Amino acid sequence: MLEINEHRTLEEEIVYFIFDSILNKKIQAGIKLSESVLAKEFNTSRDVIRKAFSQLQSMGILKYKKNQGFHVVWLTKEDTKDIFATRKILELGIIQILTQMHAKNELDLSLLNQSVETEEFLKVSLRNGEYVKSSCDFHLNLALLTKNDYLINALKPLIALSTLAALIYDNQETSFCSYDEHKVVIKAIESHDIENAKSIMYQHLNHCVESLDFDIKPSKKINLIFGK
Prior knowledge:
The structure is a single chain. This protein has helices at 10-23, 35-41, 46-58, 77-103, 110-124, 128-146, 149-168, 179-191, 194-210; strands at 62-65, 69-72. The protein is mostly helical and 228 residues long. The chain folds into two domains: 10-72, Arc Repressor Mutant, subunit A; 77-210, GntR ligand-binding domain-like (Four Helix Bundle (Hemerythrin (Met), subunit A), Up-down Bundle). The protein has a two-stranded antiparallel ribbon. α1 crosses α3 (46-58), α2 (35-41) packs across α3 (46-58) and α5 (110-124) runs antiparallel to α8. The two termini are 15 Å apart. 32% of the residues are buried.
């Protein structure tokens, strides 16, 4: 049985476990998840597993097919571009709000700078799964700084899907969601030039998509097996 974090509910622990397994490439896009295997691993009922699966389904990470169960979604090139097109709309608004806040002395960017330092450390340490997640989380952290629940809740599932897309189409020769570009984004906020900040964010999101390798094909695996 797996070790459980006492600060999380069991459903939350299962969600974290699956997401982390995706990040670490132990679970690949397109595969079917086994309720019975997970129930045994967590020493719980299949009803609890289904509730956790439903949470991941609401995030867009899992897809349910009648008589086929839950599968990790396989995002196509078109899906990925649609996700980033939607993100542009939201994040250009977010960057405008943050630039205005900083100009009014209403924004502390110290934690954001620390998160970029963490990204750089993970990249240099070749911890790619963690790096991809931390890089995507940078954008969610920008939304959190606005303290606007509507923007945060709208962006959150798109960040999760972007992370999955990055892991599906990861190109080792390029840098997805570069921490160097994140440093430039922070500098743009500090400059108080709204149009320049929006332009830099737009270019950065374009670079994220351009760094992906859309020639990668779906995995043939259909079952989730742990410990092997």
